[in-house]
Amino acid sequence: MDNIITLTALIAVFFVAAIIFLLFFAKHKGVFSKEYDERQIIGRGHAYKVAFFTLLAYNLVCAIIDSCGIKWCDPSVGLLIGLFVSVTVFAVTAITKDALHGIHTQSKSVISVFLLVCVVNTINFVAQCINGSVIKDGVLSLGFIPLAAAVCFAVMLIAFLIHNKKAKLLEGSGENNEES
Amino acid sequence: MKNLKLKSARAAKDLSQQQLADIVGVSRQTINGIELGSYNPTIKLCIAICKALDVTLDRLFWDDGE
Fold this sequence. Notes:
The structure holds two protein chains of two kinds.
Chain A: H1 2-28, H2 38-67, H3 75-96, H4 107-131, E1 135-136, E2 139-140, H5 145-173
Antiparallel strand pairs in A: 1-2
Helix pairs in contact in A: 2-3, 3-5, 4-5
Chain B: H1 4-12, H2 17-24, H3 28-36, H4 43-53, H5 57-61
Helix pairs in contact in B: 2-3
């Protein structure tokens, strides 16, 4: 048992180290440089602000519910749901301002990532349901998190697709001055 | 207020919004926003656009009350 825990910890450390190395490598190669233009940076700033106040409001609501003696989830689950909600609010706000992805990023790659995360988490949630680990002692446990993640990414995906469709319709009708 | 001067200067150079955006290093939506008047660019971007289109700042961005 101790060996398995040690092996798992080593693998986790290896993956974290690999991710950090890749991030440093990418930064060194200039992958992140000039990713967003000035309008997008302003849009993302606004989106961060909206997400921040959403998280504050969520924490306030959770505190009120908790003070009423209603226990509906594990503390860690409540924390993670709050993070998912605020990240989703950030992403949707950024999408409406054309500021979610950088100027060199393809829309298709964003859609692929959203779809992949959504599908993987949905499958994970089904597995959690089969194991019966979604609700423990009458409250939501960590098994609920994949569903929360899947719903958040589904919302982001839908918002992204609707925004892209609207932009294409505007281009088609010539409302955004793109005729030359 | 729409920036028709920018649109005409871009058309005179036979550039699309995307081509101009690539030259100055911004997204097409940013150029579109400037032309529609929904986004006020920084002076840095204004200068980059003027250099790309070979026109002066006055000609593109000075509101002479027309």
